[in-house]
Amino acid sequence: EIKTFSKWDQKLFHEIHIYIVQHLDEPPKTLDQLAMLFNTNEYKIKTGFKEIFGCTPMQYYNRQRIRQCKILIENTSLSLKEISIKMGFSSYPHFSKSFKKETHVTPRFYKKITRNS
Fold it and tell me: Where does the HTH araC/xylS-type domain lie (predicted)?
């Protein structure tokens, strides 16, 4: 069942999306923190995000963060460790695990294939 959201709700989800994208280099906010920040409730954020973006805010954050890491790997001379630090990962192993979970390849392999193409 597809829910219809008011214009206010649509604007809210758009603002949360923008907030997430602008804060990818910071640790992610919990649903509770997002709800407080945007003066709404956790349920509305979780269900609205799932409906509009097909994932939870945390999944969206992780996907966008890995997307940004891929851009940095492709377009900068930063080392993988530097990228992991720049993007706010707690450690290189955590970055590598998150990257592989999202892309199905390690950051090292991704760097190798994008540099050789």
Answer: 14-113
pLDDT band for 3, please (50, 70, 90 cuts): low
Can you give the pTM of this predicted structure? 0.84
Asked which of 36, 57, 78 is the last residue of a domain, the reply is 57
Q: Residue 117 has what pLDDT?
A: 65
**Domain range spanning residue 97?**
62-115
Which residue type sits at 80?
A: L
Provide the domain count of the chain: 2
Residues 108, 68 share a domain: yes
On whether the CB atoms of residues 24 and 66 are closer than 8 A, the answer is: no
